[in-house]
Structure formats: structure tokens, C-alpha cells
Design goal:
The protein is an alpha/beta fold. The chain is built from 9 helices and 7 strands. Strands 1, 2, 3, 4, 5, 6 and 7 form a 7-stranded mixed sheet that branches. About 40% of the residues are buried.
């Protein structure tokens, strides 16, 4: 047993924090519990709300995030939804993140973090999976949490990007790519039925099943210019 624990400590540990909307705040408890057991991930990857919590963990802002969540009132959440659905006025994800973290994310680059970090986003035009692993931390999180209809899609490197949970809800693959020997995966939606209601998306080449093609077309339509296709 001692030998197994020793080899575990020598391995590079990654944690893949999955998507799950409000369930995502459970990630904070997972990270706190792991830390109490002396397990601190070297690599943090997140999809959607997992990217938000992962960024807090990578920058040492967990206390700030938890305080913001505890102070969040139901009327605040309803206010976001009313603006989005009644007035067709989506929220800029950068503004949303600014309310939580202030300038902490805007002034941080992924390359300067003490941990390796990556987030997942979805190309709105093709349905392809996009890995964000360098540059501004804010620019890496904003697209990953941009849930269509609530938070605006983000224009990044010539592409419109949205919520990463659409293509890779639990980014184990990204953790492996960043060098993790052991991956702790946190799936917030394992008990939910009907996740694949619209059919699968092949993240390698952007092919979509017939049942999901109409969905993607409807989501992408407002962000395309007539006769113009977003480049990869």
C-alpha cells in the first residue's frame, strides 16, 4: 500500500471538471475534499462551469468564487434569465466573469499559472471541439461558459465559440494531452437521461448527425454573414 501511495504522488495528477450548469458549484467541494486528503492536481481542465471553477483553482481564487456564490440571491439569477429570454439580451460572459473575479483573470496568462490549464469550447459554425490552452485566461474561460441563449457566443481567433459542454462535457482527453498520468474525472450529469437527444457530434472533423444539424444551423444563423463561412 505504501508503494502504491508513493507512485501516486510521483504521477502527474489531472482533474477534469465537467459541465453541469448550477451543479458546477459542486466542483468546489470536490477540490476542497481532495486538498484535505493531500491531493492537489498538477493539471486542471474544465468544460463550461468546470472551466470557471478550474480557473479559480488554478489562480488561487477559490475563496472569492465561493463567497460570490454564497452571496448570489435567487432574484439575481431570475434577473439574468429575464434579460436573456424576455428581452433577447444575452449577457457578455466577460462581464459575468468580471463580477466574480474582478481583474484577476483579465491580467493572467495561462502560461504563467503554477498549474497547467485548459478549457473546452465549441465552434458554433462547425460543431468542432476547440482546446484553449494558452493566452489570456479570461479569453479561455469566456467561450467555454457561453451557453447559447444566456451568455453571448464569443468571437475568438476568427471563430464564434460557445459552451464546451456541447461537445466534451468531461474533458479527460484534454487532461491526458496536457500530460496527466492519472485523471480524476468529475461528471456532474451522469445520472441525467437524454443528454444525446440531438445526436452525436464528431469533434475530430465536425461532422454532425442529421438530427443535430438543424440545431447547429439555428444557433449559428445570427452570427454568420450571408455567403460567408467562418474559417478554422
Amino acid at each position: 500500500m505504501a508503494q502504491k501511495r508513493s507512485s501516486f504522488k510521483k504521477s502527474r495528477i489531472g482533474i477534469a471538471l465537467g459541465s453541469g450548469s448550477a451543479r458546477g458549484w459542486a466542483h468546489i467541494g470536490v477540490l476542497r475534499s481532495l486538498e484535505e486528503q493531500g491531493i492537489v492536481p498538477d493539471i486542471v481542465c474544465g468544460s463550461s462551469v468546470g472551466a470557471l471553477v478550474g480557473a479559480a483553482a488554478a489562480t488561487g481564487c477559490m475563496d472569492r468564487l465561493e463567497t460570490w456564490i454564497r452571496e448570489l440571491k435567487r432574484v439575481d439569477v431570475v434577473g439574468y434569465m429575464v434579460r436573456s429570454f424576455m428581452r433577447s439580451e444575452s449577457i457578455q460572459s466577460e462581464k459575468y466573469l468580471g463580477e466574480i473575479f474582478g481583474q484577476a483573470l483579465a491580467e493572467t496568462r495561462i502560461e504563467d499559472l503554477p498549474k497547467r490549464f485548459g478549457s473546452i469550447a465549441t465552434d458554433l459554425d462547425t460543431g468542432q471541439e476547440v482546446w484553449l490552452r494558452k493566452g489570456s485566461l479570461l479569453s479561455a474561460i469566456s467561450p467555454s461558459i457561453a451557453f447559447p441563449g444566456l451568455l453571448n457566443p464569443v468571437h475568438h481567433d476568427g471563430r464564434w465559440l460557445v459552451d464546451g459542454g456541447l461537445v466534451n462535457p468531461v474533458p479527460v482527453s484534454l487532461c491526458r494531452a496536457l500530460g496527466a498520468d492519472i485523471v480524476i474525472a468529475v461528471n456532474l450529469n451522469g445520472d441525467l437521461l437524454g443528454r444525446n437527444r440531438y445526436g452525436p457530434v464528431d469533434s475530430r472533423d465536425g461532422r454532425k448527425s442529421a438530427s443535430s444539424r438543424d440545431l447547429w444551423e439555428k444557433l449559428a444563423l445570427p452570427f454568420r454573414k450571408k455567403g460567408e463561412k467562418t474559417s478554422l
